[in-house]
């Protein structure tokens, strides 16, 4: 049984001494020492715990509910000298049986601790927001030696520097910086974040070449017709102002606001000096690509949706061709050569076209997606099927392209082409044969993609190939039937 | 920074400030790569506040304020006599990077007047974003204002580099658009929104990076005769159909060199504020557009009480609500209780019985909440029947703006 002990004084390192506090509390709980019997002090003298001989070996760790465990480090950052005692009271009550205490936000003690945590959170947030770096210099060497250096002076309200600094390291890894505060400093050298002694305001340059421009920006983005000083001060309390260069503009802005608004409201509208730029307006409307070449230039200049492709692979063939074939997307060979249907599947298609009596050079060949997408496996680039979203991205171009080519019949090779043309996912087995792609201005025909044939086992391939050639023959005769001269 | 650039910045920031959106939220958390620059935190950061109380989070500028369009409400319309300027792509990139390095901003909000053609303009905007991402390894926030008249493939390419895209509706009805923005086409705007909404959703499903912070829009309040009810119903439809992340309501503000067909008056800030509150009720408080409409008077939200209080005053029979027993949905209907307060109440009452003092510690809105709730030691003395309840709870009129 623990004896009622005389009052104890526990001395912790100044600031947020989580380790010291944890060690101390473990002992206090193990010895059943109530909060009333403890005096907490901050200072550089060594802590009474954890190595006070009378306490014996380190006390066992406490199993605390999560809501308590997360509250402790946050509250310890608060500057209130009572923070240790308050936390000890919370932990004491939890250890005495009030396991859910930290969830009872209406309890006065919990309420107070929550307010403290909130104040610390706000201070952290404001430090991330209101700290301003100034340029210090740049090395003259190459590589590492040419890094820029920046510095900032900030006065946090609570002991938050160690907690706040990693944010800046994640955001600004590419230059060296230091943050100086009255309680300590933080340094980043591109690799490590380190902490040091307090700094002085004078250690940071007095000016920065971009501050005047930034202040002008700040002033320009203010709308005098909406002046609301209370709202500004609530979010940006005055105590932060002296470290924020732009706030120098505030008095002038506020003074002039009323007069500026009055002038805007009273001023009679003026007649526009400029005449209506009719020619420019007319030209503006004509932005659509006017030819297949213009469209192709746009496609060629566009970034692939999924990075990696060597180039865009454009359609090939004669505008006005009777039949257009739409495949899925360029493959490895197509990507390197910049031409559609030149790889193994393309060669198979050429052969099938020949056998079906279609001259490849009289047809138009293109793909639903214009860039190769792959997964690199060693040196090999393994084709990856485009997603529905990718197909949808490219469909604008396909639509325009086919409008310029104006074929009588469009043959969709495989499910991706059907998706691109109709906007719907349909299994090829169901869609195979004539189709109108849900209201397109041309007739359509659906068959498999030649790469499907290449993937079949040998024994099934011959029959499937024959069926494919058959489809192409049917498509050719359908196209012939659609010819204007053949009608009637 | 040289004077010429500073002058452009002044003109092009001034021209951009009427766009209310400022948020840098909604992007997934990102860190800079070694040698790169920038991160995003999820919730966004306001790096300063101007004397209008609004947040300065992004460098909000126009690429140019030359414009071929003639939207009456806009300071940049071609018939306005304002000073004009034009940034080069590199100038915007430099300003963004240098401001960012000094921790002035979270990123860039770039918009533009329409020069040469919508496509040309859109290409320039995309080029800025692409340069920031690819040449500077910039991982900060980018919001691009999309030109709905641009070709669809360009609109979609913007999503490759931007965190957020917006297409401004500006006016809620076709008729107003026709009258005030002759070159704009309401149907085209909505088509572009729909297209964008689809792409964003699809990319999310396919786990591709495409405008991860979604799309937003802005509606101008007070430039035409639309009622609050119609605005709210339009908003509900936009949230539903196009998956918008946010709708900004922007009180029509006097501008230098205003057009003669528009009211010249102080911006209706209180009305704007009430619309935001109503919007909030729909998004976080499980209010339907009909609930909100039910709190209006001939389609307009009251200015002296907030929409939640207005609704409660109209539905007094549903109160008082017992804080120790009522379900969450009904607690959310109590004026003065925010989402956080309600969640704390629900958590705390599992382990304690709440008295009025306890509730007072959980909300700052007890004055408004009191007549509508019951606690262990408290019940309102038929306060909900009192005729003067509204007058007692109304706010004194004042100029107010939350954003
Ligand atoms: S298009 Fe209309 S709203 Fe946009 S900048 Fe031009 S005039 Fe202003």
UniProtKB/TrEMBL annotation, chain A:
Transmembrane segments: none annotated. Keywords: 4Fe-4S, DNA damage, DNA repair, Hydrolase, Iron, Iron-sulfur, Metal-binding. Signal peptide: none annotated. CDD domains: UDG-F4_TTUDGA_SPO1dp_like (cd10030). The keyword Nucleotide-binding does not apply. GO terms for biological process: DNA repair. InterPro entries: DNA_repair_put, DUF4130, UDG_Type-4/5, Ura-DNA_glyco_family4, Uracil-DNA_glycosylase-like, Uracil-DNA_glycosylase-like_sf. It holds the Pfam family DUF4130. Residues 314-473 form the Uracil-DNA glycosylase-like domain. GO terms for molecular function: 4 iron, 4 sulfur cluster binding; deaminated base DNA N-glycosylase activity; metal ion binding. The keyword Cytoplasm does not apply. It comes from the Bacteria. Belongs to the uracil-DNA glycosylase (UDG) superfamily. Type 4 (UDGa) family. This is Type-4 uracil-DNA glycosylase. It comes from Methylobacterium platani. The lineage of its organism: Bacteria, Pseudomonadati, Pseudomonadota, Alphaproteobacteria, Hyphomicrobiales.
TrEMBL record, chain B:
Gene3D superfamilies: Aldolase class I (3.20.20.70). Transmembrane segments: none annotated. Coiled coil: none annotated. This is Radical SAM protein. It comes from the Bacteria. One of its GO terms (molecular function) is iron-sulfur cluster binding. NCBIfam families: rSAM_link_UDG. InterPro entries: Aldolase_TIM, DNA_rSAM_put, Elp3/MiaA/NifB-like_rSAM, Endo/Exo/Phosphatase_dom_1, rSAM, rSAM_sf, RuvA_2-like. Its cofactor is [4Fe-4S] cluster. PROSITE patterns: RADICAL_SAM. Keywords: Iron, Iron-sulfur, Metal-binding, S-adenosyl-L-methionine. Residues 51-291 form the Radical SAM core domain.
């Amino acid at each position: 049984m623990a004896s009622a002990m005389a009052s104890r004084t526990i001395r912790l390192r100044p600031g947020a001494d989580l380790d010291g506090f944890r060690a101390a509390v473990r002992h206090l709980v193990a010895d059943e020492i109530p909060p009333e019997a403890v005096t907490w002090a901050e200072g550089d003298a060594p802590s009474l715990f954890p190595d006070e001989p009378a306490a014996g070996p380190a006390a066992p760790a406490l199993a605390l509910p999560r809501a308590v465990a997360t509250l402790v480090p946050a509250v310890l950052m608060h500057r209130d000298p009572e923070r240790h005692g308050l936390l000890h009271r919370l932990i004491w009550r939890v250890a005495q049986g009030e396991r859910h205490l930290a969830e009872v936000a209406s309890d006065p003690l919990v309420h107070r601790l929550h307010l403290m945590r909130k104040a610390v959170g706000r201070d952290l947030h404001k430090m991330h927001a209101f700290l301003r770096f100034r340029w210090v210099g740049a090395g003259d060497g190459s590589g590492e030696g040419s890094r820029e250096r920046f510095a900032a002076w900030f006065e946090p309200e609570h002991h938050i520097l160690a907690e706040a600094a990693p944010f800046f390291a994640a955001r600004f890894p590419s230059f060296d910086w230091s943050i100086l505060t009255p309680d300590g400093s933080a340094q980043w050298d591109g690799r490590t974040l380190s902490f040091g002694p307090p700094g002085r305001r004078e250690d940071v340059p007095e000016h920065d070449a971009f501050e005047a421009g930034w202040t002008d920006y700040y002033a320009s983005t203010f709308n005098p017709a909406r002046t609301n000083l209370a709202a500004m001060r609530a979010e940006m309390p005055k105590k932060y102002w002296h470290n924020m260069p732009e706030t120098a503009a505030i008095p002038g802005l506020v003074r002039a606001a009323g007069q500026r608004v009055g002038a805007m409201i009273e001023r009679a509208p003026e007649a526009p000096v400029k005449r209506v730029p009719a020619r420019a307006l007319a030209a503006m409307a004509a932005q659509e690509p006017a030819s297949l070449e213009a469209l192709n230039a746009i496609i060629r200049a566009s970034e692939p949706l999924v990075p990696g492709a060597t180039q865009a692979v454009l359609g090939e063939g004669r505008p006005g061709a009777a039949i257009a074939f739409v495949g899925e997307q360029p493959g490895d060979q197509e990507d390197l050569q910049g031409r559609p249907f030149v790889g193994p599947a393309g060669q198979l298609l050429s052969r099938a076209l020949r056998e079906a009596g279609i001259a490849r050079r009289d047809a138009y060949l293109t793909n639903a997606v214009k860039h190769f997408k792959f997964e690199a496996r060693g040196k090999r680039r393994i084709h990856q099927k485009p997603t529905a979203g990718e197909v949808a991205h490219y469909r604008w171009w396909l639509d325009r392209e086919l409008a310029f080519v104006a074929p009588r019949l469009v043959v969709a090779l495989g499910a991706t082409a059907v998706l691109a043309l109709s906007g719907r996912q349909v299994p090829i087995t169901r869609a195979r044969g004539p189709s109108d792609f849900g209201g397109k201005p041309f007739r359509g025909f659906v068959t498999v993609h030649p790469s499907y044939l290449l993937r079949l086992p040998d024994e099934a391939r011959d029959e499937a190939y024959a069926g494919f050639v058959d489809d192409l023959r049917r498509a050719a005769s359908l196209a012939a039937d659609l010819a204007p001269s053949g009608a009637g | 920074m040289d004077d010429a650039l500073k002058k452009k910045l002044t003109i092009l920031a001034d021209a951009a400030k009427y766009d209310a959106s400022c948020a840098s939220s909604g992007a997934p958390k990102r860190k800079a790569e070694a040698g790169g620059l920038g991160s995003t935190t999820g919730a966004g950061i306001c790096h300063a506040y101007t004397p209008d109380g609004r947040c300065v989070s992004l460098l909000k500028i126009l690429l140019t304020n030359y414009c071929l369009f003639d939207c009456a409400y806009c300071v940049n319309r071609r018939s306005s006599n304002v000073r004009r300027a034009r940034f080069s792509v590199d100038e915007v990139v430099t300003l963004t990077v240098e401001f960012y390095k000094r921790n002035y901003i979270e990123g860039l909000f770039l918009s533009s007047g329409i020069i040469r053609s919508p496509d040309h303009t859109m290409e320039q905007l995309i080029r800025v974003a692409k340069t920031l991402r690819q040449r500077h390894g910039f991982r900060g926030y980018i919001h691009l204002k999309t030109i709905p008249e641009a070709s669809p493939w360009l609109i979609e390419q913007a999503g490759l580099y931007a965190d957020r895209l917006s297409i401004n509706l500006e006016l809620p009805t076709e008729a107003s658009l026709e009258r005030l923005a002759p070159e704009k086409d309401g149907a085209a705007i909505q088509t572009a929104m729909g297209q964008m909404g689809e792409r964003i959703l699809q990319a999310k499903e396919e786990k591709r990076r495409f405008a991860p912070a979604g799309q937003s829009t802005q509606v101008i309040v007070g430039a035409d005769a639309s009622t609050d009810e119609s605005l709210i119903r339009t908003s509900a439809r936009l949230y539903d159909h196009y998956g918008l992340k946010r709708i900004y309501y922007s009180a029509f503000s006097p501008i230098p060199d205003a057009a003669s067909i528009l009211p010249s008056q102080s911006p209706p800030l209180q009305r704007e504020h009430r619309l935001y509150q109503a919007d909030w009720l729909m998004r976080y408080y499980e209010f339907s557009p009909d609930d909100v409409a039910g709190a209006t008077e001939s389609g307009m939200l009251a200015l002296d009480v907030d929409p939640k209080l207005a609704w409660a005053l109209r539905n007094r029979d549903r109160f008082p609500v017992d804080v120790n027993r009522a379900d969450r949905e009904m607690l959310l209907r109590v004026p003065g209780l925010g989402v956080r307060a309600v969640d704390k109440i629900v958590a705390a009452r599992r382990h304690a019985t709440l008295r009025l003092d306890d509730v007072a510690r959980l909300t700052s809105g007890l004055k408004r909440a009191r007549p509508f709730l019951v606690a262990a030691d408290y019940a309102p003395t038929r306060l909900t029947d009192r005729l003067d309840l509204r007058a007692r709870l109304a706010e004194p009129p004042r100029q107010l703006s939350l954003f």
